[in-house]
Amino acid sequence: MTGRNKIRICVLQSCIENTKGAISEVDPYKKPEVYDKDGEFEWHTAYIGKATSASQLVALAAVRPPYDVYLNLCDGAWDEDRAGRDVVEALERLNLPYTGANLPFYEPSKIEMKMAAQYYGVQVPAWVHIERAEDMESGLAEALAPPAHGGLRFPLIVKHPSGYGSVGMTRDSKVTNAQQLREQVSLLVQQFGGALIEEFICGREFTVLVVEEPAAPPPGSAAAACMAAVSAGGSGGAAAANGSSSSSSSSSSSCNGKQGGAGAGSKDAAAALDPDLSSFRVVAYTPVECAFGPGEDFKHFNLKWSDYETLSWTPCADPELAERLKEAARNTFVATRGISYGRCDFRVHADSGDIYLLEINPNCGVLYPPGLHGSADYIMSLDPAHDHLAFIRTIIASALERHRLKQRKVRPAFFRRPPRPAATVTAAVATAAAAAAAAAAAATQPNGNANGNGHAAQAGSGEEGAAAAAAAAAAADEERSGAGGGAGGWGLRAVVPIKAGEVVQRNEQRKHVLASKGFVQRCWPEGSRQREWFDGYAYPLNDDVWVTWSDDPNDWLPLNHSCDPNTWLLGLDAVARRDIAPGEQITIDYATFCTGHMAPFDCCCGAAACRGRVSGADHLADWVGEVYGHHVSGHVAARRRAAGKQPQAGASIATATTTTTTATAATTSTSSGANGIATSNGAQH
């Protein structure tokens, strides 16, 4: 990477001018460029103020030529006057590639760390959290209760409940009796509004730097070049993100034997919950022991920032302990939704050898100049395979690859239909009104009907009849209002080429808004707007639970129907059924996930196989198994099995029909013309 091919890095640092926090007085500026001795990168630095972070980032984003990546070293806490989370918010809003923590990982509380780590089998010291000043007495009573009744054992240590840089901690934060405990808790509650009381783990202290690596960036990309340079420099030892390592079960105890962990051992070490994170692997650098000088046994504020010369740093020489520490660090990183890098601090119990997590530090202090090293810098200086330059290359590569992967493949778009002649609209009004009257009369008389595709429809239920009546009445109202002429509806449009088999809309491991049928019947009466939306846009997970719409329009993903769609289901995900071109509307066949509750509608998708009329009974037709095979929802598959219907093994992406490959911007997938609310994961018709 030389000349014009150099990666342009903009280093973001929290400006300390006119700030008054404790950290501002002692934390020096970082100097990442000093570790790039051969000038591999092009460096620029911007000092960001908390009050001006948004405007500064907007100005930086407009610089030409643009910066390739932002190395974000801003680490101000929520209650500080230094830039921090606000910088990440601006970077996200401006869609800029950046290193360091994202919003979910930026500043987890110590309680959130403990909960997440315990579920991943990482032990933590027993604790009591005093959340508010009014909880101080009850919290002290809980901590001082007899151990047999859940109380803590001395010695104890009192900490900031969120915490950063040992703020609020002094040598007196470690206490050995009730009076000392009360004094220290009172100080932190007055200063920070709360306090965390933990059992003090007697033993050695270690710190482990965890770094995210892209597993396979595209060949020829800047991310691939960075990782190639890392490999050429001897960096290695990557741990698989899907967790190939494991450890045996171990009990949890503190220095006085109190259990503080919820689970032991590790299954699927460092296995990310998010399926999209399989593109990254989690690497734990060599653990380093922090040894304390005479009279010290934990890092309080002055020791960390002023008297640090008394600390000594040594790589862990015990291979078995080093691997256990690495595994605990990887699990903690993934449990807390780690991004880019983070440093984990651990205590190893002096008697049992058990490992206890003290905390994870997202956006930990790093890349200080030589002579002013922080904990993470000592780790890199003592690990030949992962020196400072290798670290810089890795986090840059990860930032670029993560940015590439998070770019949207589809976006909501309004698809307009061409206006129709006035005579056509008048005729449509009459037809729709007649259909509404007929549907209303038939709503109480279940009977069989043709479904518009030449297949015999299932006998209609009262629920289906009511839905049909509502749909027909809505169509008549729409025609009268003129909405059917020159109007259209919302849908999803591809913004990049999408290959057959690619996930188009990720629904696995994603939030859904759910409603039970009982709730709908109780709270959304017939004729209400919510009930109309439910009838038109909700889809079932089973006979009683439905996916509905979010109240946040940013979550709406209106996925329209086509009788020859370009996506189908793979589990909960919508996957490309064939190659999809930019600008093409994303469609799916409602028969693959909607059942009897869905209001029927006339389809105008334009496919050669268009069945004209789409209804909730379609999911039981024989052709669903022939065309879509197993690419239907679990609920539809269960209903088909109950009806004696079986999928055809031949249905696959390779054999998908390709009658209609493009939906133009002038045509919606259906004839309802609804500008309606899509569900959070998207049915609109």
TrEMBL record:
Transmembrane segments: none annotated. GO terms for biological process: methylation. Signal peptide: none annotated. Residues 238-260, 643-685 are annotated as: Disordered. Pfam families: Dala_Dala_lig_C (PF07478), SET (PF00856). Residues 114-393 form the ATP-grasp domain. GO terms for molecular function: ATP binding; D-alanine-D-alanine ligase activity; metal ion binding; methyltransferase activity. Residues 599-615 form the Post-SET domain. Residues 238-254, 649-685 have a biased composition (Low complexity). Keywords: ATP-binding, Ligase, Methyltransferase, Nucleotide-binding, S-adenosyl-L-methionine, Transferase. Belongs to the D-alanine--D-alanine ligase family. This is Uncharacterized protein. It comes from Chlamydomonas schloesseri.
